[in-house]
TrEMBL record:
Pfam families: HDOD. Signal peptide: none annotated. It comes from Pseudohongiella spirulinae. InterPro entries: HDOD, RNase_Y/CdgJ, UCP036888_HDGYP-like, YbaK/aa-tRNA-synt-asso_dom_sf. This is Putative signal transduction protein. GO terms for molecular function: aminoacyl-tRNA deacylase activity. It comes from the Bacteria.
Amino acid sequence: MSETPTQLRNVLLHDEQGIAQCILPRTSLLDLKSLHTLSGRVLMPMPDNEIMRASRMKKLTAVGQSMQFFTLPTYVDSKLSGSAELMVEDEGLTLGELRDTLHQQGMHIRHLAIAVPEEQLVSDLPETSQDSQRIADSIKQFTSLRIRQRLDETLEIPPLSPTAERIMQLRANPNASVSELTSIVEADPSLAAQVVSWASSPYYAAPGKIRSVQDAIVRVLGFDLVSNLAVGLVLGRSVDLPKDQSYGFTPYWLQAVYCSTAVESLARAIPVSERPQQGLIYLAGLLHNFGYLILAHTFPPHFTLICRYIEANPEISHVAVENHLIGISREQISAWLMQAWNMPEEISAALRYQQDASYTGDHSTYANLIFIAMRLLRRHGIGDAPPESIPDELYARLGLTAERCEAIIENIVNSDDIALIADQMAV
């Protein structure tokens, strides 16, 4: 018997028949497909606003003094069927007492195999050499796309845009000039407008009005930031933003801007000898969730299901959810695509290993900084990282302290300008 009240969690769901609740171990994944099959109901997670609305309309009646459990039709994971004495809340309520109360209120209770135990969830990534085959197998199994000889054709992702290619070539040229970068950016009116808007934002507090792309580069942003900002914007526009998304999570561009700003600021706190390239770490942050767009593009029906699973399992890594549903993660897809586009190795490593706190391989600093940034941002309700702790060893490996990093993120979160910048990028 365990006395830890947080061992169980309750998920509120609804369908045309009304509201129901599912009780399962806190670290297990609620398997919506199994719930649908076994219950005969197409129950979907309730967004917070719907829960609040149901509370106002008195459709939710708490069990006793409970803050988690309600007098509703209830589905209990079958693994808990012999756990009547399990404590479910601080007040001492046991699972057996909860079930008895629900029975007395005439509520229907069923024990069903609706949860996947934590030990069966896969969050670890395979060897990099296996990515192409894993992606191809997943596409073949879960989409109607015909497997072609080349995986990039199968994914139906457009090639790296001419604008991005020209900028990446320019970045690799040690003799590149501001005028060359200016001409590339100005050739894309939308991109040029966004660069000028970015430089004009209160976040940079530039003196005087920004009148041109060159002005933005020379006086405010600098060559590296503009070149990487432009690449991130162009790649982000290469795939449409999905119409569906997980309720309660940060919109794509807002999360991208927070992450890029955070990792760039954290990088400046690293000892100079270990510091990553400022431009590349910024680009890595901007593209960190690019795989989210690729998932939506490549697996449309399954992407919607992924969103529902993430809503039902907010404390479980999306890596485990995606592996459970389609056998591949957004990190693998995006890292593979960066390699196919001949993007810098630092970017590919950052995207692939950003969820692995123990990664110490090539270009690990880039991935490690994203790991730290997204988990600290999640504490402020930003982003989709699982709410897990950051190992002290990771801070030490980068020459950082938890206190310093938390203060940096606090300053970023308290800035009102990040959202304005993100709105400009989403246009």
